[in-house]
Amino acid sequence: MVKPLVAGNWKMNGLTADLATVREIAAGADTITRQADMMLCLPATLVAPGAEAAGSSALAIGGQDCHAAVSGAHTGDVSAGMLGDAGASAVIVGHSERRQDHGEDDATVLAKARAALAADLTAIVCVGETEAERRAGDAVARVVSQLNGSLPDEGTAGTMIVAYEPVWAIGTGLTPTLDDVAEMHGAIRAHLVAHFGTGEQMRILYGGSVKPGNAVELMGVAEVNGALVGGASLKAADFLGIADAYRA
Ligand code: 13P
Question: 233: which DSSP letter?
Fold first, then answer.
């Protein structure tokens, strides 16, 4: 049995005033028993105060990206060790917005995931096809190729998470059919089992327009071990509502 994870990705949103939302989510994570872990991946500026706001609650804090190097002349970048030092226990790498906006390829994502593991952070590695790739029937092949190129061999079920986020489903209100989610998550599981000793237990999150209204059906699909939530993680009620898909 894989313990699910409901993780939020605040992207480039959140100021000091929004720590009230972090506190609300942390309190909500503790008041209701859920069969899922909970995490918020905050912008780098909010990782330290966010970790303080989450305190000893069941809410973990993560970052959204890290540099592949431990330190050095990389103006504006943040290392995995810095995120850990600020209170993060995980970091997202290879989000499609970074692959697109910053030209990150699989080799870059692999190096970042390695850096995260070396800094004792859980690496949440994102993969996902574009709309054109899905229309061309290449979705599974594209994602498997990203898995081949982006996942470090040393990753384990305890240290690495795969997030499947179809690019065309992010922020659009569109989601794949449940059959398409099942097909993709099944293909990802088969890859993980074939390549990693702990592949059977590795979490595979679904991300892309997850809302309280569709969380139960999406989280009920085979091999879906939780969600990576963008927009709906900015509101405590929505994020907690999604996590309620795992109410005990
Ligand atoms: P939305 O939930 O806003 O579609 O974003 C998904 C996402 O990109 C999470 O990383």
Answer: G
d(CA 23, CA 39): 12
How many whole angstroms from 73 Cα to the centroid of ligand 1?
Answer: 31
146 and 165 Cβ atoms separated by less than 8 Å: no
pTM given for the model: 0.98
pLDDT at 1 over 90: no
CATH topology of domain 81-161+169-201: TIM Barrel (3.20.20)
Domain boundaries along the sequence of the chain: 81-161+169-201
pLDDT in tens, 65-115: 999 999 999 999 999 999 999 999 999 999 999 999 999 999 999 999 999
What are the catalytic residues?
95, 165
- Tell me if 91 sits within 8 A of 125, measured CB to CB: no
**If you measure from the C-alpha of residue 170 to the centroid of ligand 1, how many angstroms do you get, rounded to a whole number?**
5
| 18 residue type, one letter | D
Ligand 1, pocket-test mutation among 5, 228, 234, 238, most atoms within 8 A of CB? 228
Report how far apart, in Å, the C-alpha atoms of 11 and of each of 2, 7, 157, 180 are: 26, 12, 25, 26
Distances (CA, A) of 222 to 30, 32, 198, 225, 229: 27, 24, 18, 8, 19
Measure Cα distances from 204 to 84, 95, 102, 148, 199 in Å: 23, 14, 24, 15, 10
The rounded Å distance from CA 173 to ligand 1 centre is: 10
- Work out the angle at residue 186's Cα, subtended by the Cα atoms of residues 185 and 192, and round it to the nearest 5 degrees: 85
- How many Å apart are CA 10 and CA 122, to the nearest integer? 18
Q: Which residue has the tokens 């989601």?
A: 175
